[in-house]
């Protein structure tokens, strides 16, 4: 099986440059970086005393929280769909 081709891109997140590599499109990788940058700036705006490490951890915690809430909603909707198909 051939290895899937990977895209590579340099992005700026909160003032630092990172190289992202993945099978996703360049547009997708840019969007991910942009969302992380936006979230970090949003959190920093509410708490100026955070250093970059604290800010990164809180961004990760908030992002995982949002992911888990979305997964719960998907599960709820799947259960509702099963009941409707019934």
Automatic annotation (TrEMBL):
Major localisation: cytoplasm
Keywords from the UniProt entry: Cell cycle, Cell division, Cytoplasm, Septation
GO annotations of cellular component type: cell division site; cell septum; cytosol
Subcellular location(s) per record: Cytoplasm
Pfam family, one: ZapA
UniProt KW Cell cycle keyword: yes
Domain of life where this protein originates: Bacteria
UniProt-listed GO biological process terms: division septum assembly; FtsZ-dependent cytokinesis; septin ring assembly
SUPFAM superfamilies (alphabetical): Cell division protein ZapA-like
Protein name from the UniProt record: Cell division protein ZapA
Source organism per UniProt: Ureibacillus terrenus
Gene name of the encoded protein: zapA
């Amino acid at each position: 099986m051939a290895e899937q081709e990977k895209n590579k891109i340099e992005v700026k997140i909160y003032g630092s440059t990172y190289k992202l590599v993945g099978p996703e499109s360049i547009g997708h990788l840019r969007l991910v970086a942009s969302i992380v940058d936006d979230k970090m700036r949003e959190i920093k705006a509410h708490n100026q005393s955070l250093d970059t490490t604290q800010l990164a951890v809180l961004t990760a915690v908030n992002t995982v929280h949002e992911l888990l809430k979305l997964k719960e909603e998907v599960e709820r909707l799947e259960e509702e769909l099963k009941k409707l198909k019934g």
